[in-house]
Amino acid sequence: MKFLDHLEEWLIATLMGAATVVTFLAVLHRYLSGFEIPYLQDELLKINTSWAQELTIYMFVWMAKFGAAYGVRTGIHVGVDVLINKLSPANRYKFVILGLAAGALFTGIIGTLGGSFVWEIAHTDQTSADLEIPMWWVYLAIPLGSYLMCFRFLQVIWNFVKTGELPKHDHTHVDGLEDEVKA
User: Fold this and answer.
1) How many CB atoms neighbour CB 153 within 10 A?
2) Are 52 and 25 in contact (CB under 8 A)?
3) What are the C-alpha distances in Å from 43 to residues 26, 50, 88, 143?
4) What average pLDDT does this structure show over 3-25?
5) Please, which residues bridge with residue 166 across strands?
6) Where are the alpha helices (DSSP H) in the chain?
């Protein structure tokens, strides 16, 4: 599981970083192209960055799908559990399992329908407008991300059954920063 956890985190961080760099370079290009500097403006206008926005959108779609699975695993999704927490422990247990199972079922269905859609679109010649890549590459994020999210729901159910605990995210903790030891 550690490999999958690290792959998920690496993919999200890489997509976020790459989208930021692509967007920054496209904005910088657009800004510098406006300066009337004879040689520089001519060279910049030869560079086509119309693809940058499309690429950034696709990277954010992939990042969101895998980020949602990360959110299930780490407990950072927003949840309204006021009523659930007022129930007796036995009923709370049942409703938590029901809610997680509903999440697993829903994401499994979305993954299956998304996989069917990708299969159908892969047999067409549809390509993206600017990048001209096959559209099934873009839509592949739906089944992959949804199945990973389904797996994460099942993983949380398994852990909850074994330990009685749900993943909880500490919003005050920052990885890499340790509390200072006062001497």
Assistant:
1) 23
2) yes
3) 15, 16, 70, 42
4) 97
5) none
6) 2-32, 38-46, 51-74, 82-86, 89-122, 135-139, 141-163
- The two three-digit tokens of residue 27, written as one number: 């904005």
Residue whose token pair is 């999200």: 12
In this prediction, residue 84 carries a pLDDT of 92
Task: Report d(CA 56, CA 35) in Å as an integer.
Answer: 25
Q: What is the dihedral of CA 64, 65, 69, 70, to 10 degrees?
A: -30
92, two tokens: 């709370």
The rounded distance, in Å, linking the Cα atoms of 17 and 25 is 12
* Cβ neighbours for 26, distance < 8 A, ≥ 6 positions apart: 49, 52, 53, 56
Residue 182: the pLDDT is 54
Q: How many CA atoms lie within 13 A of 180 on its CB side?
A: 2
Q: What is the pTM of this model?
A: 0.88
> How far is C-alpha 172 from the geometric centre of its chain's CA atoms?
22
Amino acid at 86: K
